[in-house]
Structures
1.
Amino acid sequence: METLQSHYHQWGAVLFFTVVYAAALLFVPFYKKMDRKPATAYLAFVLAFAIEMHGIPMSMYLISWFAGKSLPEGILWGHTLISQIGYTGMYLNILCAATALLIIGNGWYNIYHQYWSKESGKGKVVKTGVYKYIRHPQYTGFMLLTVGMILEWATLPMLIMWPFVAWMYYRLARKEERDMVREFGEEYIMYMKKTKRFIPFVV
């Protein structure tokens, strides 16, 4: 218990993890006000992760208050899952984060050099790099980041928030696709038939 409790009240670590995970948003443009809502939900998820992991065990406090008695570290509050899978969750989170950053970085590089160049009159449907397989690599990356956080530190707030974050990015992806169809017409429709939305060869 003492080792686990040493993770808490490290507000420098809370700030560090929040900044690191939030930095992924720098690689996504915000053209419309609606685009900011999924980003805000993602930031709230990251903050919940960082605070539960290194700040205070909010879930444990809330559940203890509701139950009317003090609770020990356990599943869905405190350092969750460590008693069941050890540090496997941490390693899986690192793997998810590394994969997510590669996907986000590759997506940003290709879209920056092709679609965003439309300001100079040269914008086009991006079909290179990760865009050969999926249409929304940044959003796939965000979902991987959040799944990794859950695998390492699954708490009730995060499990409740995750479906909403995923739904908001799904909704935004569909809206962006409609915008692209209006902009590029048949070319984008054909591109959609050859690619998946989030996961290569799956969905």
2.
Amino acid sequence: MAERRTDLDANVLIAAWNGDAETRAWARAVLDDPRRRLVVSDFVRLEVLPKPSFHGKPLELAFMQTLLASAETVPVSADLIQHALALALAGRFDLSPLDALHLAAAAVAGVDELVTLERPEKPICRQTEVRVISLCAQRDGSRP
């Protein structure tokens, strides 16, 4: 069985720890799927590590660190930033600057998909650079 390289949006990691029961289950189904090779950018690390550290939540911090340690990393680089700018992702699809960087990281890494908890009508789900799986759209009974 071939592995899918799955880039994770920070909201999936956060929901796996802090989400309501249903959302946590959806997020963990992605994280625990043996058919997926998890990929994260340094931007995701920046989104999920500082808060539990600052707020003194050692279990949440350890959870995030464990997940991130097992994931393939897409480092921040000048090429990645240039890719985001060259694609003009933010302007073309009305993305936030950070979402444009996330998508550029996913594109540079050549992932099979980016998984997010954003709703399907959000710009990150409507762009065409990277295949995006919205867990919000998957709640029709099918597994992510």
